[in-house]
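Phosphopantetheine adenylyltransferase
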Amino acid sequence: MRIGLYPGTFDPITLGHVDIIRRAAALVDKLVIGVAINRDKGPLFTLEERVAMLEAECAKLSEQTGTEIVAHPFENLLINCAHDVGAQIIVRGLRAVADFEYEYQMVGMNRSLDDSVETVFLMAEARHQAIASKLVKEIARLGGDVSKFVTPQVREALIERLAR
């Protein structure tokens, strides 16, 4: 069974993430969405909320693709998370050249730790390449319309959270 791991903070999940998940699901038998517990980033949504949003979106994608897709919180090294879930492939999404430079460095480090785990890069579709969770949150904070960047459910969660 080919198992892929797509890690990220997903704070919140965007249409760019959904695009990568949909396409990664075609490459593996099971796709694990690694939800990073990154306290340094100070996420807007709790871990439980991020996992719930992912599970809601992934249930639809799993049904559409026929691939098992599950959310898995993690706080250890990415390569250790890959071992924990039995992943042979790490999936990373790229938006721009700047992403590649960082990701290239990460691949080198991960391969130094375990060269049996491959990393696959997927480019988001052109219409999703500029989407970043950080920017989506900023637009929402300033009262802008984020409906082009997230699903309706995530948009409502953002509005509700920022109203507090």
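thats it. Residues 3-163 form a domain with the Rossmann fold fold (CATH 3.40.50.620). The longest helix spans residues 47-65. bye
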